[in-house]
Amino acid sequence: MLVSFCVFFIGGFVLLIYNLSYEIPLIHYSVHDWGIFVLLALVPKIFGHALFNWLLKYLDATTISMSILGEPIGAIILAYLFLGEATSISQMIGGALSLIGVSMFLKNKGLSNKELTANASVKSANT
Prior knowledge:
Layout: H1 2-21, H2 31-55, H3 61-68, H4 71-83, H5 89-126
């Protein structure tokens, strides 16, 4: 978790330097905008990157990397709900195909893990 914090801090610092060097204002935004900024900072970091890094303790990297493919779909849904962004038919089709692919992988991964567990139990019983 400390590594994630350091990476996020460095990223924020680099963006601060960028904004200052191009004289992009850092204040004078509405309360609504600040709320969006806070949500954009916290939600993807805590429920996205940091959560995936933490899950690496318990799941293999292949499962995590496949699950990350669902992240853009969540972003499209959140943008539609909170920002009023339009969703095109191609985004819906692509999102559905991505979700089908991820679910097929996870289902297959679950079946292969059950088979491995069953095989390990049989081998330990035979020895």
